[in-house]
Specification:
With 234 residues, the chain is α+β, with helices and mostly antiparallel strands. Helix content is 41%, strand content 16%. The strands form two sheets. Strands 1-3-4-7-6 form a five-stranded mixed β-barrel. A two-stranded antiparallel ribbon has the order 2-5. Helix 5 runs antiparallel to helix 6.
Length: 234
């Protein structure tokens, strides 16, 4: 079995399963330390205008057709079809890695049994990918029904401006953002990257920072002028 898993043709699938286990372990460690890998990943995904059918009907008989890939919003529609925005990114990633790895190893096992050898990794990866993608949508739909709505509430990153974040990891300096934690209007915690709005400022771990603007995936802020307003809007 070990020889089968470590065969060069099976590396894409074995690596996918190992990465899945590593992500689960990191999420557990991050949770113990008071951080949240899932929240951090969600904060890196830009807000999406999901103009797609997001009906959570679990009838998957004909619910595996990919969205129309034409037009400038093709990627947005595809991500929406995969339940991004309804389910935490980390959960979708774990589902994909697990499905891709298991389907790939299953295909290779069948090839070895009926053809006497393993398929090239790239060749076996194609059907594994085709099989894994509908599983992500299907199980994502199940999770979207199970997970409480307030845990998957889509919050615009624009609402973070005017809120107070606390530096949780590293030291923020101009051009060198650090991780910070803030709470949105629903009481949900988010981890964002923050750097000083003024080049001369530096924010160490534990510093309260008032978010004043957004520059792409990074927010800028100033030292909180009113410590009593932590986690509240100005």
């Amino acid at each position: 079995m070990i020889q089968f898993l470590l065969a060069s043709q099976n590396m894409p699938f074995t690596v996918a399963l190992v990465l899945m286990l590593a992500l689960a372990l990191l999420e557990g460690v991050a949770t113990v330390l008071g951080a949240g890998l899932s929240d951090m990943l969600d904060s890196l995904i830009p807000d999406l205008d999901l103009d797609v059918d997001v009906d959570l009907d679990l009838d998957l008989d004909a619910d595996v057709d990919l969205p129309d890939a034409q037009g400038p919003g093709a990627m947005t529609r595809l991500l929406g079809w995969l339940r991004l925005g309804e389910v935490p990114v980390l959960m979708l990633l774990v589902i994909f890695l697990t499905a891709f790895g298991l389907f790939g190893l299953g295909i290779q096992s069948l090839a070895n049994t009926y053809f006497g050898g393993l398929l090239p990794g790239g060749l076996a990866a194609l059907p594994a990918l085709v099989c894994a993608v509908p599983v992500v949508r299907g199980l994502g739909g199940v999770l979207a029904r199970i997970i409480p709505k307030d845990e998957t509430e889509v919050v615009s990153e624009g609402t973070f401006i005017g809120r107070v974040a606390v530096i949780t990891l590293g030291e923020a300096a101009s051009g060198k953002p650090a991780e910070a934690k803030l709470t949105d209007q629903y009481g949900q915690a988010h981890y964002v990257m923050v750097e000083p709005d003024r080049a001369a400022d530096r924010f160490g771990q534990g510093t309260e920072v008032l978010i004043v603007r957004q520059r792409g995936a990074v927010f800028t802020g100033i030292a909180n002028p009113h410590p009593g307003l932590t986690d509240a809007e100005v």
